[in-house]
Amino acid sequence: MESAPLQQTQTQVLVNSFVRSVYNWMAIGLALTGFVAFYVSNNPTLLQLIYGNPILQIGLFIGTIALVFTISARVHKMKASTATGLFVLYAALMGALLSYVFVVYTRTSIASTFFVCAATFVACSIYGWTTKRDLTTLGGFLFMGLIGIIIATVVNIFLRSSAMHMIIGYIGVLIFVGLTAYDTQKIKQMALTQPADVGAAAVRKGAILGALSLYLDFINLFLMLLRIMGSRE
């Protein structure tokens, strides 16, 4: 009679530990990205090196994409320390790429957009965690919307349409709001279905994978909101 409540308590402890690890690593990634972006933006030599060299800029961009696919596809086959190192490297490279944010936009608008983004992210995470609705089908729709946003962004590089720029921002906010809730529900399911005897290395790799998903949601939601709310220097 007492074993069931005990097992339920142990399961809840494991779930709480896993989820806490996911959000801790996401926060570490965001903090590192912000630090690197701010540092690079205040270093004219590094700014010129990155944005004055199209080949290096493209290389960094391709490198970040490669890291996302590598972590997502091979995280369960690599060591936990390797997965952690790749995630930290990815966050640092993203900081270098996003250093332009501190150059293009005012510090006040960056700060206000960040707080709006954080509040929106928290609300969407709470919804994704507490809702009884299965968001699996929503995930496929949102992914197709994400592909559309990427294509529209590439096209607008050549068109330079301010109207399309804003439209992409509004649609992007909706997409990443949905993806935040969807990914949070996925992380909840990961936490609830992991075996009780799962090793620490497997837990770390699962946490890194979950942190990467939420990190991407947060960063992209922030950039889309910045399109709408940001004031340029």
The ordered H/E elements are HHHHHHHHH
Number of strand segments: 0
The outline comes out as globular
By DSSP (H or I, 4+ residues per run), the number of helices equals: 9
Runs with pLDDT <50, length 5+?
A: none
Oligomer: single chain
Structural class: mainly alpha
Task: Tell me the strand percentage band.
Answer: under 5%
Total domains: 1
Report on the biggest sheet: none
Mean pLDDT: 90
Radius of gyration: 19 Å
How do the strands and helices of this protein lay out in sequence?
Elements: H1 3-41, H2 44-51, H3 54-74, H4 80-97, H5 100-104, H6 107-130, H7 136-159, H8 162-193, H9 200-229
Helix pairs in contact: 1-4, 1-8, 1-9, 3-4, 4-9, 6-8, 6-9, 7-8, 8-9
